[in-house]
Amino acid sequence: MHKKYGDVFEFYIFKKRIIMLNRADLAENNVLKQSIKSNYFVRALSRSQGWRELGLTERGIVLNAKFKTWSLNRRFLSHCLGATKYIREIFNVAHNRFLEAEQYLKKVDDNTPLEFSKWFHCLTVDTKIEITTGEKTYALAAYANSLLPPHLQKPVPESSIQSYSEFISSLLYRTSVGRYFTRTPAFLRHHVPGFKHIAERMKKKVAWLDEEVKKLVRKKKELIASMDDKEELKMDLLTLMLTTNTERDTNKVKAREFEEPLDESEIASILIEVFSGGVGTITTALCFTVYYICKHPAVKSRLVSEIDATLSADDNTLTYDSLTTLFPYTSAVMKEAARILTIVPLAVQIASEDDEVAGYKWRAGTTIGVNIGVIHKHEAHWKDPETFRPERFLDEGGDEIQPRTFLPFGGTVRVCPGRVVADKLMKTFLILLFSKFEVELCEPDKELEYAYTLANNCKELKVYLKARITEQNV
Ligand code: HEM
């Protein structure tokens, strides 16, 4: 649309006017300011009656429109996600979960097409549940068994989260609930039998999930209380959130950063958001990255050479230190994939005060959208924007990247607090994948299949995997 209507245009959805900004410099002084004094704190989605009715706009983080609780919850979460010990633990869990997955993958016949969006989804679910709650789930093992003949299947251990598949599907179901509540008019949801029945069933499921997560929080709280003070605590997000600002705090910050521990129901809301916000995005980002790597043989070959050379110089193992300081080309490839196909292509905020944006004066209450997907490919910001060229992101010999033009994790005051977690998880998985397997697209000429619902979601990515015979894999 911006090609036809220019870098600033307005349009209407259900009589609601939205001003769309398609160049980073038009938004950099106001909407794209990451200050808590920003006038663009409220997400447009939080104004939807549907989300309000689900009770999600006054708690947690993602849709919370109440500055005070949002700010406290967000600082708490960022504080916990930023703990060095926690980031290291994320690496350990991701590494171990991948090695487990490798055992299953090696049993699958080289000629069996693997549905990678499903595979990465299961791997991400298992890893995220473990780093978030400390519980082990076996989504990937169950999926692998479905591909194997009976004699090669491994029994799936009983999960410590009761009926975890129901738990996981309810977590992911929240997106569909949100879609229904925002798209179906309130009159239908409240008064017309078929619609009303669906809305009530969905609300019950959301309430069930809230209760299950609160139970998990209470169980962990009791476990921590029953432990000896000297016993080392598990390094998962729930433990960190429960112990921050208590006697057992292992991640102390300066005095009085937080007045008191966070309350149980806010912790439950945040856990649900961290989970449901991170799984689909990471799965899709991994699929898109693998797709672009496989579509560009020269990129694949340089990536694999970097991985092989770096691992063999480090005893053929991937360590946390090498993950964070080496692999510049792998990082550049991940960035270029995130640029060329943006996972969350829009940030839509509401102005809390009258303002001048992009040379025009707007009233408080105006809805302003930053078109990240377009900014990522704008000729004013990028050389040959349609070309997949990771080299542009290299520190040495790369292009000069203009400020605020690369926004895969958003760029407003609500910028993603999970970006380091996402980066570490994805990089670990990609390095291990390409070091251990030859990856080929089953249908190299087929277009990537994805659909947009608040974020882009990969619908299908079929690949063949063949174990590589290299020094590090013998
Ligand atoms: C590739 C993976 C991910 C992508 C592409 C992504 C992208 C985004 C984007 C674009 C936003 C909105 C930013 C804005 O409005 O300016 C966001 C918000 C958020 N993300 Fe992520 N995210 C990812 C992974 C994660 C993970 C792993 C977590 C949790 C550990 C997470 C937690 C959140 C939360 C809580 C918010 C809401 C922040 C707020 O409203 O203050 N995300 N994410």
TrEMBL record:
Name of a matching Pfam family: p450
Coiled coil: 199-233
Domain of life: Eukaryota
SUPFAM superfamilies the record matches: Cytochrome P450
InterPro entries: Cyt_P450 (IPR001128), Cyt_P450_E_grp-I (IPR002401), Cyt_P450_sf (IPR036396)
GO function term, MF aspect, one: monooxygenase activity
Keyword match Coiled coil: yes
Cofactor(s), names only, from the UniProt record: heme
Binding site for heme: 416
Presence of the UniProt keyword Coiled coil in the record: yes
Annotated keywords: Coiled coil, Heme, Iron, Metal-binding
Protein name according to UniProt: 8897_t:CDS:1
Species the sequence originates in: Paraglomus occultum
